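task queued by scheduler; priority normal; single chain, no ligands, no partner chains; default sampling; output format set to C-alpha cells
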Amino acid sequence: MNLQKIKYFLVGVLGSITIRSLFSTMSIKEIPDGYSLDLERQGKYAIYAFWHAHMLLPAYVGRNRNVKVLISQHRDGEYIAQIVQRLGYGVARGSTTRGGAKALLRMIKQIKEESISLAITPDGPKGPRFVAQSGAILLGQKTEYPIIPVMIYLEKYWALPSWDRFCIPKPFSKARIFYGNHIQVPSRLEKHEMEEYRVALENELIRLEHEIESIIKDV
C-alpha cells in the first residue's frame, strides 16, 4: 500500500468515525418526519438532491441504507468516497464535469439491476455554488425516479474557505433536513426541456431555503 492509499484509508476511517460522533451529539429531525425511511419501506426509490456544502447531514441520516452516491473522480473526491463507503453507501465515481457521462451510465445500469436510491449534489464538484447542473435531471430521465430536493438547516456551523463554503455543524447544536416537492422528469426530453427541469430543481431548492427561514423556530 503506497503513501497516498494510506492517506485515503486513514481519512476514510477517521472521517466516518468523526461524522458518527459529531452528529450523535446533535438534535436532528427530518421534515416530514421519517420521510426517506417511509419511502424505502414502501418500496419506493428516489434521487435525493442537495447542495455540495450541506452533504454531511444527509451522509449521516442516510447511512447504512440502500443508497448509492455519485462522487467526482478528482483526488478530493476519493477522500469523500472513502468516508461514505464506511458509512454504508455504494459509490459511483464521476461528475457532470469530469467523467460524468460514464459514471451516470454506470449508475443507470446498476439501478436497473438493483433496487437503490441515489444521492447527488447538483452543484458539485466545483460549482458554481448553489447552481444546479444537469446531471440530476439526466438521472431522473433515464431512471424514471422522482428527484427529491433536500435542504439543510444547521443552527450553528463552521464554514470552510472553499468554493462551496462547506458547512461543518458544531457539536450539540440543532440540525434539520427538509424534503421538497418531488420533480418527475419525463423519459423523453428536448434540449430546452432539460434546461427547464434543471431550473425547476434549482428553484425548488431556493424555495425550500426561504420556507425554512420562515418556519425554523417552530421545528
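post-processing summary
- The CA atoms of residues 141 and 186 lie 6 Å apart.
- The first helix runs from residue 3 to 24.
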